[in-house]
Design a protein that fits this description.
The protein has 505 residues and is an alpha+beta fold. Helix content is 35%, strand content 19%. The strands form four sheets. It has an eight-stranded mixed sheet, with helices on both faces.
């Protein structure tokens, strides 16, 4: 797939700061990274030992010179990480992006505030850099200001290429890391007027090729969509020794909606009101209707802006089989899911049977990982964020056209999450809340003229089940205390068929 959707700009090379002199600092940090990386939420290879870390590129970002003066040192690293797999075989190889800070006093930009536990990599205890503290510089406001300055105009710095769309940027604003749980890192630059506030999403695990978060944001921006934060700038790099020539997207800067409210937090606050007043039957349903409209607006804009295809029998059957294989893998990873395996497999067999009966699916570019934590309620309505797709999938998979119902299923599952996470005194009240909001969302989606997702319950149920299975594995790996929520959903899906089971041909 070509990258013709990305605007081209003339870039001005920036005289690079010699990085060779920083190699000893990087080499001294590498042993500490073996312990530090696996504890990061964004590290994909949890549970497998790191066998090697190799710096692919080291770029010093401009600022005061010297390793222990002023605001400290800021290095941009691209790290090749190899991990051994059980049973031997070829190691798994990933490339990670790290902003490496170094200073004798830790995080100087925080001016004495408590250093985030996740930020400090460790103190070097020998060699020419003995005593320096190395840390994730995304948490250092003074150093991340340098990165923002590079994004204000098209330019090159060593292997890094910076591009901008020419919007207003808060060039002098310090950065702060968002507290929202993410598989990447977002740095908020909230200086000046609301029009100048921006947020930079740093992709931690990077691959050659155009990241869908940038690709779809640019497409929706060109289409004039008001349902996304406006894209402002981005940066990328060609990965050394990569068989692909396409550069890897490293970060995307968009407008920061200062007054907007996180959809997950808003839903939780509303549902918790039911404990004191269970009669609030309209609770949040109007917002869910509007969110359905916003989601459909984005799907319709993407369908107008990007290629649309049709999945025929063989492709739908293959999709159902892939879902079944993900179920098998999930049952191995989380044995508690195994008791529902046969019933859940029947859901995917129903989808394959529908394909043999003539079902054809329209496929287009979609969000790919939509839930209440990926939407904001702003003064102009609902806004969708983070079009990266499921981080566990390859970049090629995430850029494939898919049925729009995948995003619908993600939001429906998110209502279930909110209802369960609220822990109301009466579970029946929470279940009724989820049902009302599911219905309202689908009604709002259909009200735009988009296809009503409830008209094909077999398809919707298959995608909800596939999403719940993904959630089981994700929670088991990252938030074990939450795994009961998707496990309960899988139990419900396994025991409450949406339609009479068809007879196999």
């Amino acid at each position: 797939m070509s990258d013709t959707s990305r605007p081209r700009a003339v870039t001005t090379p920036v005289p690079p700061t010699p990085a060779a002199g920083y190699r000893p600092l990087v080499e001294a940090t590498l042993p500490m990274l073996r312990d530090w990386l696996p504890r990061r939420r964004w590290f994909a290879g949890k549970g497998h030992p790191i066998s090697a870390i190799t710096p692919l590129a080291v770029t010093a970002l401009p600022g005061p010179t010297g390793l222990a003066r002023g605001t400290g040192t800021l290095l941009h690293l691209l790290l090749r990480v190899e991990q051994r797999q059980p049973g031997g075989g070829a190691p798994v190889v990933d490339v990670y992006q790290l902003l490496l800070g170094a200073h004798p006093d830790g995080l100087p930009g925080l001016h004495g505030a408590a250093v985030p536990q996740d930020a400090v990599i460790g103190r070097i205890t020998s060699g020419p850099h003995d005593g320096l503290v190395t840390y994730d510089a995304a948490y250092d406001p003074a150093l991340t200001r340098r990165l923002l300055a590079l994004l204000t105009s098209p330019q090159r710095l060593g292997p890094l290429r910076f591009s901008t769309l020419g919007g207003r940027l808060p060039a002098a604003a310090p950065g702060r890391v968002s507290t929202a749980e993410q598989s990447n890192t977002s740095i908020i630059y909230d200086g000046g007027s609301p029009a100048e506030a921006a947020i930079l999403k740093l992709f931690r695990r990077v691959s050659p090729g155009l990241n869908p978060d940038l690709e779809l944001s640019l497409a929706l921006g060109r289409a004039g969509s008001s349902r996304i934060p406006a894209p402002l700038a981005w940066f990328e790099a060609e990965l050394p020794d990569s068989p692909q020539e396409a550069p890897a997207t490293l970060g995307v800067l968009t407008h920061f909606l200062r007054e907007a409210e996180d959809g997950w937090e808003l839903a939780l606050r509303q549902i918790q009101l039911l404990d004191s007043d269970p009669t609030r039957v309209g609770n949040f349903a109007a917002e869910s209707f509007l969110l359905g409209r916003a989601t459909a607006d984005v799907h319709l804009a993407l369908a107008r802006s990007m290629p649309v295809t049709v999945l025929r029998r063989a492709e739908v059957e293959a999709m159902a089989e892939t879902m079944a294989l993900r179920l098998d893998a999930a049952c191995l990873a989380v044995p508690a899911l195994g008791r529902h395996r046969d019933a859940l497999r029947r859901i995917f067999r129903d989808l394959a049977f529908a394909a043999r009966g003539g079902l054809r699916l329209r496929a287009q570019r979609v969000h790919g990982d939509l839930h209440l934590g990926q939407v904001l309620r702003s003064t102009r309505g609902w806004v969708l964020l983070d079009f990266e797709g499921e981080p566990a999938k390859t970049l090629e998979e995430r850029r494939l056209p898919q049925p729009a119902v995948r995003d619908v299923a993600g939001i429906l599952r998110s209502f279930d999450y909110a209802a369960a996470h609220a822990r109301l005194a009466d579970p029946a009240v929470a279940a009724a809340w989820a049902a009302r909001n599911r219905e309202a969302f689908c009604a709002g989606y259909a009200a735009t003229g988009a296809e009503d997702p409830t008209l094909d319950p077999v398809l919707l149920r298959a995608f909800e089940t596939d999403k719940a299975i993904y959630e089981v594995v994700y929670e088991a790996r990252h938030r074990p205390d939450w795994v009961a929520i998707p496990l309960a959903a899988c139990a419900r899906l396994a025991t409450t068929p949406a339609t009479p089971t068809p007879t196999e041909a």
